[in-house]
Amino acid sequence: MLGFSPLASAPLADTGAVAEAVFGLDNIVAGAPTVATSTISQAHVLTSADITAGAPTVGTSSVSSDQSLTSTDITAGTPTVAASTISQVHAITLADITSGVPTIGAPTVGADTQLTADDITAGAPTVGEVTLIPNEQLAADDITAGTPTVAASAITQIISLTADSITAGTPTVGAPSITQIHSITQDDIVAGAPIVGPARFKWQIEPVGPETWTEQTVSAETWTEQEAA
């Protein structure tokens, strides 16, 4: 072992020296990471404990509401509502309510209504079984009302309906089967006498006329000496 070599003044484990290394790194460029498609499914089951509410106290409230709402056209798809199961248990205890004797002033009502209805034809109504258990205790003082007077009324109603654009899907037309029968009757055709112009055979020998030769006189030749540049 080098630590116990006679050349070393002490074993390496006993020198107490601390090694320090400095590393230089070049720039590292990573490519675009690729993440596979993941599927997440969540299911929540909520269970609430019993809720016991005390007697509610509602003070006198004054509400004044004045809204002017203008909405743009909203196109919603077909909603899908899953089947839900709800279990509720309510135990409501109400305190006794004692009201004083109501005071009603003499009202003044003036109505001018003119109603004109078209013929209304209704089918036979179907009413299911109704179970009603009333438990009411009403105590009212004497109420004296005057004789109501209702004048003849006339109502005129004009409805103007404007439909938005209707966009229909691509129609689907099944394969048709067509059978056709044609009956063609021709009238008599009368043609005149055909006229055929002059014709010749492709390899017919054409006659050649007599040959005429004329002797041409050639003029004397003239030579001119040219000096070289």
Report on this model:
The protein is low in regular secondary structure and 229 residues long. The model has no long low-confidence stretch (mean pLDDT 75).
Form type = elongated
The gyration radius over C-alpha positions equals: 58 Å
Fraction of helical residues:
under 10%
Which segments are poorly predicted (pLDDT under 50) over 5 or more consecutive residues? none
- Note the gap between the termini: 108 Å
Tell me, rounded to a whole number, the average pLDDT.
75
- The number of strands is 0
Task: Return the structural class.
Answer: little secondary structure
Largest sheet: none
Roughly what fraction of the amino acids lie in strands?
Answer: under 5%
Number of helical stretches of at least 4 residues: 0
In short:
By secondary structure, the chain is largely without helices or strands. 0% of the residues lie in helices and 0% in strands.
List its traits.
little secondary structure; single chain; elongated; 229 residues
Question: Would you spell out the secondary-structure blueprint of this structure?
Answer:
Blueprint: no helix or strand
